[in-house]
Design goal:
With about 400 residues, this protein is of the alpha/beta class. The protein has one domain: L-arginine/glycine Amidinotransferase, Chain A (5-stranded Propeller). It contains 7 helices and 19 strands. Strands 4-1-19 form a 3-stranded mixed β-sheet, with helices on one face. A 3-stranded mixed β-sheet has the order 7-8-9, with no helix packed on it. Strands 10-11-12 form a 3-stranded mixed β-sheet, with helices on one face.
Length: about 400
């Protein structure tokens, strides 16, 4: 099909081609959501019974760091778009459920999946995030009006009834199951989602040209993987499942696997890959999976969304799982990478691998949902769809 004439805004085939336009989230109005069937937020610093708004001083701090990151991006010639915050503290409901609040719009990567000239709105897996798409609609409407080639897609919105989740999962997870029982469930792929309906978060997807890798775990179920496969494979893509072990609760592939450039990716080996075909596919195509160096920081942010006492045993040395957000980098181009300013080990590692490292202070933003990759969606990258894995494994 011939592309329509006009301004091209959306073009993004992978995680590393030269970045020219990006969406960056905002921390404004962020809320610690109440317990729900999908997830229980254990936030030690929260002074409320279970949930409530972030302190304004923390929001202001995160806003200052985010604004600084935006200026750095713009200084490198990148156009930056940002979402429109809502009142996330308000009660939300559908005919099936009521939730006492939402969450925020700091991490657009969870919701929006760009591929070529398409941006796909993910289903989302938490009730507190069901309406999060509304914060990004002004941006997508603008793209649709100005780019005649932009394909605006949305996966079927899930009902998220109680049948979507394993009954009593979080009650058992936080109060009943031993650590060994949780690990055994993880080995058997027994997560919190059932197969009632397709569920996936966009951050469970990594794009590498014609190949798409999808993590099947706590925020993407088998039905969600199947939906993505049926959606993208008729368009000429190859969709591969990825599974990891060694974690009692696992979500979002961009905390474990980050393509840096053609032929090279970082991997967080705190969670061993259970999908041998994934590793073999990289090997036979000459890709190097570089074990990311352990993070420098060893203390937990007491306002972190992802600080579970129940997963503290999944250490590597002094590094708890959430601190491996240090691996959650963003590529400006195949030779240049944004890295947390405090993570000097990772900076040194990437420097020795031949990358220009841009250190940026961002650690305090992690409590709002993630680091550089989580907090961005690459809308336009120069380049076209390439085949980086020409040698395929039958059935994978």
């Amino acid at each position: 099909m011939t592309a329509k004439p006009g301004k091209r805004i959306v073009n993004s085939w992978n995680e590393f081609d030269p970045l020219k336009r990006v969406i960056v989230g905002r921390p404004d109005g962020s809320v610690i959501p109440p317990p729900e069937p999908a997830y229980f937020y254990d936030v030690p610093a929260c002074p409320y019974p279970n949930y409530g708004p972030f302190p304004e001083e923390r929001v202001a701090e995160a806003r200052e760091l985010t604004d600084n990151f935006v200026k750095i991006l713009e200084g490198r010639g990148v156009v930056v778009d940002q979402p429109t915050p809502l009142d996330y503290s308000q009660r939300v409901q559908t005919p099936d459920w009521v939730n006492e609040s939402m969450r925020g719009c700091m991490v657009p990567r969870d919701l929006l999946l760009p591929l070529g000239n398409e941006i796909l709105e993910a289903t989302m897996s938490y009730r507190s995030r069901w309406f999060e798409y509304l914060s990004y609609r002004p941006i997508l409407e603008k793209y649709f009006q100005e780019d005649p080639n932009f394909l605006w897609e949305a996966a079927p919105k899930p009902r998220l009834t109680d049948e979507t989740y394993e009954k009593g999962y979080w009650e058992n997870f936080t109060k009943v199951w031993t650590f060994e029982e949780k690990m055994e469930r993880a080995r058997r792929r027994r997560w919190n989602l059932t197969e009632k309906e397709p569920i996936f978060d966009a951050a469970d997807v990594a794009r590498v040209g014609k190949d798409i890798f999808v993590l099947v775990a706590a925020t993407t179920n088998e039905a969600g993987f199947s939906w993505l496969k049926r959606h993208f494979e008729p368009k000429g893509f190859r969709v591969h499942r990825v599974e990891y072990g060694g974690h009692t609760y696992l979500w979002h592939l961009d905390a474990s696997y980050n393509p840096l450039c053609p032929g090279k990716a970082t991997a967080m080996l705190i969670t061993p890959c259970l999908t041998e075909e994934f590793l073999e596919l990289h090997r036979i195509n000459g890709w190097e999976l570089v074990p990311a160096t352990p993070p420098v920081r060893t203390e937990i942010d007491p306002w972190s969304f992802i600080d579970f006492e129940c997963i503290d045993k999944t250490f590597i040395g002094d590094a708890k799982p959430e601190l491996w957000l240090s691996c959650n980098t963003l590529m400006l181009d195949p030779k240049t990478v944004f890295v947390e300013q405090l993570e000097t080990r990772l900076q040194d590692q990437l420097d020795k691998l031949g990358f220009e490292v841009i250190p940026v202070p961002f650690w305090q933003v992690g409590a709002f949902g993630g680091a550089f990759h989580c907090s961005t969606v690459d809308v336009y990258r120069e380049g076209k769809c390439e085949d980086y894995f020409p040698k395929q494994i039958k059935g994978y």
